[in-house]
Design a protein that fits this description.
Shape: globular
Largest sheet: 6 strands, antiparallel, barrel
Radius of gyration: 12 Å
Strand order of the largest sheet: 1-2-3-6-5-4
Order of helices and strands: EEHEHEEE
Structural class: mainly beta
Oligomer: single chain
Distance between the termini: 24 Å
Number of helices: 2
């Protein structure tokens, strides 16, 4: 499936944020994100298919993303998926741990499913 490291756009409750990300398939990401369910329970009622860490530009951006109800991540190739923040992260470094439950927006799969 591959992995992704680089710039992404996060849409948090309709507001765009430019962030950087390191995204990996779930099985590979168990070391990256030790507890993919964090304090939000199961993602979409199932295990995530991919996990990662995003780095926001500011602590305020990280906080806004963390508090959002609807989150979509889009890679520079235009592939996207919904995700949740699984851990509050380190706001002093603006890092958030995330997990997605759909088709990963990176890797070898043919295109991700568009998110309405």
């Amino acid at each position: 499936m591959g992995s992704y490291a680089g710039p992404v756009r996060v849409i948090a409750d309709g507001v765009p944020y430019e962030v950087t990300a390191r995204l990996v398939p779930y099985a590979e990401g168990k070391a990256l994100v030790a507890d993919p369910f964090g304090d939000q329970g199961h993602l979409y009622g199932t295990e995530p298919t991919w996990v990662g860490v995003i780095h926001a530009r500011t602590a305020a951006d990280a906080w806004a993303i963390r508090q959002a109800d609807q989150l979509v991540i889009t890679t520079k190739e235009g592939r996207e998926d919904r995700f949740t923040v699984t851990r509050g992260g380190d706001f002093s470094s603006s890092d958030l741990q995330i997990a997605g439950g759909g088709r990963a927006p990176f890797g070898d799969e043919a295109g991700a499913v568009a998110v309405p």
